[in-house]
Design a protein that fits this description.
259 residues; 7-stranded mixed sheet; 44% helix
C-alpha cells in the first residue's frame, strides 16, 4: 500500500514493515527542502501497526547530500534561497533549520526500529539521514562523508549526536573536519555499519534483519529500545532503576495485571 509519493519520497506499508524510498535517482537522491518536508510527512503517516521502517534509495547512490541548487541565488522554485535565508533575522533562520531537521528526527522514536539500507555515496545530508536511523546495513560500495565543514558549514541535520555516539569524539571530529570518505570496511569496524554485504544482497539482508526484529514481542522491543536510548544520559544507578521499572511493566503485562 502506497501512502505517499511526492518530491522524491515514496512511503509504502506492508503489514508491520514500512519502506521509505528516496526516489530521485537521476539526481543521486540529492536533498531539498521539499524532500525534507516529504520525509517528515512520511513519519506522520505511519500506521500504528508498523514496527520496522526501512529507509532505502533508488539508483547507485543512497544520497549525494544537499542539492547544490540551494546555494544559487535563485534557489528552488517556490523556496527561499539559502543565501536569502542567511540575510534574514536569526530567529527565522533558526526556525527554518529546525523545520528541516524534522525530516531526520522521527526515525528513532521508541515505537519503531528504523533500518537504513545504504549503497554508494551517502554524503553530507545523506550521511546524516543514514545516521538518523537506528541501524545501518551497507553495501560493499558504500562511501560515507560529512562534507559540510569543507563547504564552510557545519553538520546541522541531527547527524552529530549519533555519529559521536557510534565512533567517539576524536574519530567524529576527524571525519567531519576532513570531509574524507569512510568506506565499508572501516564503517563496519568502527560501528557505523551493523552489517556490510555485497550490493546485490542488500535488500535480502535488510529483509532478514527486519524479520529478526519482528520475531520478539513488540512491547519488549519498545521497552528495550527506550532503555538503551536513554542509557547514555543516566548514571549506572539510574539505569539500574530504569531497568527494574521496565521489567516490572513487562512482568505485569505478561501476567495480565494492569498498572
Amino acid at each position: 500500500m502506497t501512502l505517499l509519493d511526492k518530491d522524491g519520497v515514496r512511503l509504502t506499508v506492508d503489514d508491520a514493515i514500512a519502506t521509505v524510498t528516496l526516489a530521485n535517482a537521476a539526481k543521486r537522491n540529492a536533498q531539498s527542502p521539499a524532500m525534507w518536508r516529504a520525509l517528515a510527512e512520511a513519519g506522520s503517516l505511519l500506521p500504528g501497526s508498523v514496527r520496522i521502517v526501512v529507509l532505502r534509495a533508488e539508483g547507485q547512490s543512497f544520497s549525494a547530500g544537499l542539492d547544490r541548487q540551494a546555494f544559487t541565488p535563485e534557489g528552488f522554485d517556490g523556496e527561499p534561497s539559502f543565501l536569502d535565508m542567511a540575510r534574514g533575522p536569526d530567529s527565522e533562520l533558526d526556525a527554518t533549520i529546525a523545520e528541516y531537521q524534522e525530516a531526520f528526527t522521527w526515525w528513532r522514536r521508541n515505537d519503531v526500529v528504523s533500518i537504513a539500507a545504504v549503497q554508494g555515496h551517502a554524503i553530507g545530508a545523506g550521511f546524516q539521514l543514514a545516521l538518523a536511523c537506528d541501524l545501518r546495513v551497507c553495501a560493499q560500495d558504500v562511501q560515507f562523508a560529512m562534507r559540510e565543514t569543507s563547504l564552510g558549514l557545519v553538520p546541522d541535520l541531527t547527524g552529530t549526536h549519533p555519529l559521536l555516539g557510534l565512533v567517539g569524539y576524536a574519530r567524529a571530529l576527524e571525519i567531519c573536519a576532513t570531509g574524507r570518505f569512510v568506506h565499508a570496511e572501516e564503517a563496519e569496524r568502527v560501528g557505523l555499519a551493523n552489517l556490510v554485504v555485497p550490493a546485490d544482497e542488500l535488500d535480502a539482508a535488510v529483509a532478514d534483519l527486519a524479520a529478526a526484529l519482528t520475531a520478539a514481542p513488540r512491547d519488549a522491543v519498545i521497552e528495550t529500545k527506550a532503555l538503551l536510548a536513554g542509557a547514555a544520559n543516566r548514571t549506572y544507578e539510574e539505569q539500574r532503576t530504569a531497568e527494574r521499572a521496565a521489567q516490572a511493566r513487562r512482568l505485569r503485562d505478561l501476567a495480565g495485571i494492569g498498572e
